[in-house]
Structure formats: structure tokens, C-alpha cells
Amino acid sequence: MRRRRCCVCGELFRPDPRVGKRQKACRLAECQQERHRRACQAWREHDRGEAQEERLRRRLGAQNQEVKLAVVRDECGSKIKVVIEECLRLVVDGARDEFRANTLVQQRESLKLVPRERRDERRAGGPAP
């Protein structure tokens, strides 16, 4: 294999044949540690938003499907907390109204499917009207 330059110390080195073209740093422990530190730092900077979102989700209790409004207030402020509460209230109220409307429609539809006897078709001997 051809010799390469270490990304940390800049010295020429022969890459390990098992690693090949992927090896960036020489075999010195200091260079390996520095390369690892740089890679971790780059990963944290790249995924900073996702990690922050995940920590906030854990604090909010998203796994339990409940929102802790105190955490929202601490993270965003009181004004945003009130806006979120009102939006959630509107969503819940709308869902409740929609559920009621669908229940009424289903009840009406089920009554249409059941044939009802007419009064004049009732059998004799039944209870008097």
C-alpha cells in the first residue's frame, strides 16, 4: 500500500492492510485519540439538534403520551406555553365534536338497517297500545 499522511501529526505512515484507504491517522496512540476526539466532536455538531430534541422529548414524557407543561414553560416561556395549551384544547374539542357527530351518524345508519314492524302488522295478543 502507498504511504499516507496522518491527519493529526502530518507524518507519513503505511496504513494497516485490514483498514486500507479508510485509515486517516497513524498508529500512535496520541494521534488515534485526537482523531477519535475530532470525529466525536464533528458527530455531536452534526447531530446537535436531534440530540437536543430527543432530550426534550424525554423530559416532556413523550413516551407516556402526556405533555408536561411545566417543562414546556421552562424551555419556551409562558407565552408559548399558553399558545400550546390553547391549540391542544382546540384539537381535543374538535376531536370530541367529530366523535360525537360520527356516533350520531352511525346510530342513524344502524336504525335504517333494522327493519321495523308497522303497527298494523303486529301480531294479535301482544301488549295493547
Task: Please summarize what this structure is.
The protein is mostly helical and about 130 residues long. The chain is about 60% helix and about 5% strand. The radius of gyration is 34 Å and the shape is elongated.
Describe the model:
- The chain is mainly α.
- The chain is built from four helices and two strands; from the N terminus they run ββαααα.
- The protein has helices spanning 29-46, 48-60, 69-76, 78-113, and strands at 4-5, 12-13.
- The protein has a two-stranded antiparallel sheet with strand order 1-2.
- α3 packs across α4 (78-113).
- The longest helix is centred in the C-terminal third of the chain and has 36 residues, at 78-113.
- The mean pLDDT is 78.
Topology:
Elements: E1 4-5, E2 12-13, H1 29-46, H2 48-60, H3 69-76, H4 78-113
Antiparallel strand pairs: 1-2
Helix pairs in contact: 3-4
Number of strands: 2
Secondary-structure element sequence? EEHHHH
Q: What is the rounded Rg?
A: 34 Å
Low-confidence stretches: none
- Taking the alpha carbons of the first and last residues, their distance comes to 104 Å
Largest sheet: 2 strands, antiparallel
Helical segment count: 4
Shape annotation: elongated
Provide the helix percentage. 55-70%
Average pLDDT level: 78
Secondary structural class? mainly alpha
Determine the strand fraction and express it as a percent band. Answer: under 5%
Q: What topology, given as strand order, has the largest sheet?
A: 1-2
